Amino acid sequence: MSEQFDVVVIGAGPAGYHAAIRAAQLGMKVACIDAALGKDGKPALGGTCLRVGCVPSKALLDSSRQYYNLQHLFGDHGISVKDAKMDVATMIGRKDKIVKQFTGGIAMLFKANKITPYYGFGQLQPGNIVKVKQHDGSEVELKGTNVVIAAGSDSIELPFAKFDNEYIVDNVGALDFTSVPKRLAVIGAGVIGLELGSVWKRLGAEVTILEALPEFLGAADAEVARTAAKEFKKQGLDIKLGAKVSKAEIKKKEVHVTYADGEGEKTLAVDRLLVAVGRKAASKGLLAEGTGVKLSDRGQIEVDEHCHTGVDGVWAVGDCVRGPMLAHKGFEEGIAVAELIAGLPGHVNLDTVPWVIYTEPEIAWVGKTEQQLKAEGIPYKAGSFPFAAIARAVAMGEPAGFVKVLAHAETDRILGLHLVGVGVSELVHEGVIAMEFNGSADDLARICHAHPTLSEAVHDAAMAVSKRSIHKVN
Ligand code: FAD
Ligand code: NAD
């Protein structure tokens, strides 16, 4: 006999817990199933993001940045500290405490919203029934008038570099090294490679990043990527482009990584290897025979623009469907689906999902890049402004980078905002808001921005679109 719910959510990551909480707010009876366990072996809600993704990586980025600044920036302020040391165990303990606070916070929100959590692996059966294999071995069946699949994603494993969770690791291992590896190699110069590579580089590791593609950060605006690459080089991150890795062998407590570049085959000996070559939808074992839910050839759950699978009452959101694999994209899809189920309007505009890479300098963007506009034959104008001419950035000792506004050549409508520099993870939202309101570069240029703030770079870049920036020669 299965228990009946209005909504059964599979997965309590960003997409799933947003769907569950919003559905409960709208008066529905909700169950949410999650299979994950925390570091202490107990169930931990919040998904990849809270356990082993966004939140712990930002905690380590912040700790390592404090340490780096102490050694490289504080001297300019006249501050000197002798014998600064980094205690890795304390840093990891701080990160674990933050993770526990936030995963526990989801459990508390579930209780407050009367959502029933189930801890175990859920499999969708025909007829909107979800069979849950709980951690104690028992099974329960839940029947949902609606089922929301929010199963998320897992790391892609390379066949020649299998994870052993000690020497060859993915994000989970690289967030939990017990000491700073002397030499760290990373396969993949993407978001995880750059963020976690930066963490361990700042703490003293020699970091080599091997990227298969000849181009660095191809999804970012090319000028932003060039500026970021220059800054990473100054920090000592060794990024090798066009490097095709063919082998990774563990020999005498070292990992020997074989790769080929334009100069032929080479081997790199390191203490740890982080594989960060992308993520794949976690759809394995999720669907029993005959549910009617379709998977793409990449294993993603197929959905329409409203996250509906085409099977009556079955929806899918977050990393397990098309679109960027970002927590906030999952948040919005979870909310939209709960509202659609309640008969309200719900929609996510994938064209205005912001991207942020939390390196130093930070990289952020929304909308189209110059290379995309050129390829699509869309006429545009660009205006940019450097942080080196922003008093606040210089006062902070962070003059690297710039802001660029791209606007339609005829209508002036903003098509993209691209930023590299200090604090741009916050500034990018000026572009998101302006684009959601169909704003023009002129609108942004006429909005008063406080002085002295970093946001003035956005203001001046918008003014530069029509060659009227005040603080630079146009
Ligand atoms: P997930 O967070 O993966 O959650 C899915 C949950 O469902 C998991 O808990 C899983 O155990 C559970 N589950 C799966 N299948 C089943 C099943 N059959 N039964 C029961 N439970 C199941 N994104 C950002 O926006 N900003 C960042 O700064 C950022 N940093 C990141 C750093 C790292 C190191 C990583 C790896 C990712 C990062 N991401 C970041 C990406 C972000 O974590 C994901 O986009 C986000 O977690 C996806 O949310 P989701 O709910 O779709 O899936
Ligand atoms: P990614 O897609 O960002 O980068 C993977 C990189 O690996 C690419 O540059 C790719 O060309 C390269 N690559 C692929 N196969 C390779 C091979 N065999 N050898 C060498 N290089 C290879 O993936 P990721 O860094 O693993 O991160 C996964 C996803 O997690 C991201 O795409 C993003 O959606 C999410 N994430 C987001 C944030 C954030 O928002 N700040 C942070 C971390 C992760």
UniProtKB/TrEMBL annotation:
Top EC class for this record: oxidoreductase
Residue span(s) of domain Pyridine nucleotide-disulphide oxidoreductase dimerisation: 353-461
Co-factor: note: Binds 1 FAD per subunit.
Record keywords: Cytoplasm, Disulfide bond, FAD, Flavoprotein, NAD, Oxidoreductase, Redox-active center
Reactions listed under catalytic activity: N(6)-[(R)-dihydrolipoyl]-L-lysyl-[protein] + NAD(+) = N(6)-[(R)-lipoyl]-L-lysyl-[protein] + NADH + H(+)
Domain FAD/NAD(P)-binding span(s) in chain numbering: 5-334
PROSITE patterns for the chain: PYRIDINE_REDOX_1
Pfam families per record: Pyr_redox_2 (PF07992), Pyr_redox_dim (PF02852)
GO-annotated molecular function: dihydrolipoyl dehydrogenase (NADH) activity
SUPFAM superfamilies: FAD/NAD(P)-binding domain, FAD/NAD-linked reductases, dimerisation (C-terminal) domain
Family matches, as InterPro entries: Class-I_Pyr_Nuc-Dis_Oxidored, FAD/NAD-bd_sf, FAD/NAD-binding_dom, FAD/NAD-linked_Rdtase_dimer_sf, Lipoamide_DH, Pyr_nuc-diS_OxRdtase, Pyr_nucl-diS_OxRdtase_dimer, Pyr_OxRdtase_I_AS
EC number from the UniProt entry: 1.8.1.4
Domain of life: Bacteria
Entry cofactors: FAD
Subcellular location(s) of the protein: Cytoplasm
Family under the similarity heading: Belongs to the class-I pyridine nucleotide-disulfide oxidoreductase family.
Other noteworthy facts: The active site is a redox-active disulfide bond.
UniProt-recorded name of the protein: Dihydrolipoyl dehydrogenase
Taxonomic path: Bacteria, Pseudomonadati, Pseudomonadota, Gammaproteobacteria, Lysobacterales
Gene name, Swiss-Prot/TrEMBL: lpdA
